[in-house]
Protein 1
Amino acid sequence: MKKLIAFLISLLFVASTFGIGTLMANRCGIVINEINTGEEDMVELYNYGPSQDMSNWRFYWQDQRGTSGNFRIPQGFVLGHNQFVILTEESGTNTATKLYFNSNIMWTEFESGGIAGALFDSTGKCIDYFRTEGSTYVPPPNSWSGPDMPYPVTNNVGYRNSDIDTDTGKDWSVGGTNTPLALNPGQTGQSSCNSKALPMAQILKILKANKDKE
Ligand SMILES: [Ca+2]
Ligand SMILES: [Ca+2]
Ligand SMILES: [Ca+2]
């Protein structure tokens, strides 16, 4: 029993020092949650984590035809816990849930050859990203791996299909209808940071099982 506890403590130490902390970092915060490649092009962000000041964050978009652009989140914009915001190419007056950039995104359902997007914080750190089939964009920090999100983007709708973020296209589905400012099919909206609790729950279960044996 003592050996087991020592092993589990060391496992926890290793996980918290080297693995889980960084691995889970993106999943606890803001994600690119949904895209609309039709009229009008838009991006939905969702915040799994605590309230976040997004002043001077940047959303970068591009396509395989060689077009790209940047949206700068305005100074003072804060995205609350479990809140959505839409970034749109339209022009208008910004609200708490919709930011207008008056700058065309060139994404299309099937003529772009592939599309990609990435979200950067004010220090330039990449927070989240996605890539479709056909895209050769390598999102920093160069950690995206296949499979890619499907392309064409059926019905101009691409969306995260769960609360899990694996930094692959498996997290994304296409088709159906857009759900702006609402959870997507397959999402609970609860923090996938909670997956941190899974190893602990398992550890407690093991400890209890061993205790019961004693
Ligand atoms: Ca479009
Ligand atoms: Ca457009
Ligand atoms: Ca949605």
Protein 2
Amino acid sequence: MKKIFVFANMLIMVLFLAGCCKHEWVDADCDTPIRCTKCGKEKGQALGHEWADATCAAPQTCTRCGLTMGTTLPHTWVEATCTAPKTCSVCNATEGDILPHEWNYATFDTPKTCKNCGLTEGEPITLTEVQFDFIDKARNSYFFFLPDTIIMENSNEFPTVHILDYDGNEIKKINDDKDKNGGCSTAYSWDVNLDNSFAICTTDIDKDKNHYIRFYDEYGELLKEHTFTLNVPNVDYLYLRTSSLNHYPLFYSQMSLRPLVCIDPKTLEIVDESETGGVQEYKNNKKFKDITVLYHIDGDYRFVRMKDNSGAGYTDCELNEIKMYKDATNFNIRGYALVSEDGENYDLIDNAFNVVAKGFTQGKKAYFCGDYYFYVIDSENKRHYFCVK
Ligand SMILES: [Zn+2]
Ligand SMILES: [Zn+2]
Ligand SMILES: [Zn+2]
Ligand SMILES: [Zn+2]
């Protein structure tokens, strides 16, 4: 009888257990198997996490439950180019700016071209000999070529400066009346890489010993005037040159081109030379005494012509030789210069010293004369003008 009771009891329990819970199953997830929310009964196994690899945007992450582990990876950077900044190849994050293009200079066949992305700018170089009848007729005159106008100065009528159009018609005439007492004046436009403008420097020797520098735009409109005195004896010519760390020092010829005044080319204001470093740099440089002509070029080079006629060429800012030739000009606005190894045959170079055109003309001396123009003096003392764009 007892046995029967026990059995019945067990049966009741089994029935109770089986029949009394109407299971409510929830799906398995990463941590738990299928599970009854009422009685906690479990079936099968937990699914386990499904890890997605860490990236630079997120750490290792379970795609099901979003659990993360560890940290994000570093970006996979692709270095900046001239078309895109430094970019992560995985998440496309960017950092910094795009690089400047690395230009190959224009040649006669190809325009200026970026060696990285192939972008081109402008046109291939053209080099043409230009005839200017009015220049051939104008004896003892100096010409400087600006984009729209030609500035002419005749050594017989200092300090008059004529502004001509490209057919030789006079647009304007500037008489520097400060010079009437016999002072010396000159328009040293070609010495100064002013943007489309020129300068006249005057000294009123006999009257008030004042010195004048006037800057004009290419049509002869006055941009800026400076009047000042300098305690310098026996002044003759004033030279204004682009030579020193983006400043224009003013020189006197009798002073062996000793720089005296410094002008900021952007504001055209006289600046304290002690702030520039540049002028002092030349005063103290021993090599400076051997140089008759010195131009600043693009911040990196100086163009120099040696006093003893031994050559002309390019130096660094400290006047250490970079490249010297028998004859050379400074670079025009597009970065080209005429050079000659033998003093007779002239090559055109770009300002990385690549020869762009070899032996294209002969002469005995070459000069830079404006934004695009050079001239070469031949053995009969005739000037041959070349437009290089
Ligand atoms: Zn249950
Ligand atoms: Zn998970
Ligand atoms: Zn990334
Ligand atoms: Zn590029």
